[in-house]
Amino acid sequence: MISSNRMLYLVATGAPLSSHVHRAVVLGRDQGWRVAVIATNAASAWLDHDALERLDVPILNEHRQPDTTKRLARPDAVVLAPGTFNTINKLAAGIADTYALSVLCEALGADRRLVIVPFVSQSLAGHPAWTPSLATLRQAGAHLVDPRSGQLGVDGPLESGTGDAVARAFRWEWALAPIADMTDRRLGQ
Ligand SMILES: Cc1cc2nc3c(=O)[nH]c(=O)nc-3n(C[C@H](O)[C@H](O)[C@H](O)COP(=O)(O)O)c2cc1C
Asked: Which residue puts its alpha carbon closest to atom 28 of ligand 1?
């Protein structure tokens, strides 16, 4: 039987979609997940801290101190949304120099379910590192979701200046769809 109440980490980075991560918390809980938000420093400027506080969701941004106990259960699934150019390239290269990147690198290394919503402009996507990074992550089993259409496996860049509008129109169901089979809530059990 599929176990319920599994742990989902939502990793937020420094791009406009992070303004709406609180909506993913609500949706994830509705779908039967226990949810935590892992934020990069750059994500902080976008997060709706009041909404997240009202939801009483753990928000972690740094490693624990060595002499303290673990704060969260291990994730069963990790959703990186939005995924910035910076974080996605570092993840593909195996760089774990922030807490968020450690979580992401571990998810990939431990073969946990990982969903990525790349959120980059055309100019950044033209950089030679970008296409190989996405290919590496795809080959490693990550599920890439297009931020404009929700299509799986599509990762086209955003037209410059459209980030806020794409973020407002984004449906978090798209990001959670690749992990929907992991809880029993939708089966009505
Ligand atoms: C207004 C604004 C919008 C940004 N939008 C994006 C974006 O859509 N995609 C992206 O990759 N970086 C974007 N950036 C740049 C990232 O925030 C920056 O590269 C940051 O270092 C990313 O750090 P992180 O990956 O640790 O979150 C934006 C920056 C600003 C100030």
From this structure: 15
